[in-house]
Amino acid sequence: MYGNFYYGNPTPMYRQRITMQQAQEIALRRVPGEILHVDMDLENGVLVYEVFILTSENRIFEVEILAKSGKIIKIDEENDFD
């Protein structure tokens, strides 16, 4: 009876998001440098990629990107070197 539940929409909504590779490309377009680390986090119920970039001036920036749309929501310079 429910065998074709996703027939009209074969991909559940939570799977419709940009890839980690796309998130890295978006971040590097805004902050050129070398990717140090990429993570996906749930912030306020929203999936966000956190991309950490080391610039040529040896500064580290965190770029937060909405996983659903690829929109940059925040760019912060990291000040702690722990």
Task: Kindly describe this structure.
With 82 residues, the chain is mainly β. The protein is 13% helix and 40% strand. It has 1 helix and 4 strands, in the order αββββ. A 4-stranded antiparallel sheet has the order 1-2-3-4, covered by helices on one side. A hairpin with a 5-residue loop joins strand 2 (46-54) and strand 3. The radius of gyration is 16 Å and the shape is globular. Residues 1-13 have low confidence and may be disordered.
Summarize the structure.
The protein has 82 residues and is mostly beta strands.
Uncertain runs are: 1-13
Principal-axis shape equals: globular
Strand order of the largest sheet: 1-2-3-4
Mean pLDDT: 85
CA-CA gap between termini:
56 Å
**Number of H/I helices:** 1
Category from helices, strands and their pairing: mainly beta
N-to-C order of helices and strands: HEEEE
Number of strands: 4
**What percentage of residues falls in helices of 4 or more residues?**
10-25%
Q: What does the largest sheet look like? A: 4 strands, antiparallel
Secondary-structure topology with pairs:
Layout: H1 20-30, E1 34-43, E2 46-54, E3 60-66, E4 72-78
Antiparallel strand pairs: 1-2, 2-3, 3-4
Question: Tags for this entry?
Answer:
mainly beta; 13% helix; four-stranded antiparallel β-sheet; 82 residues; 1 helix
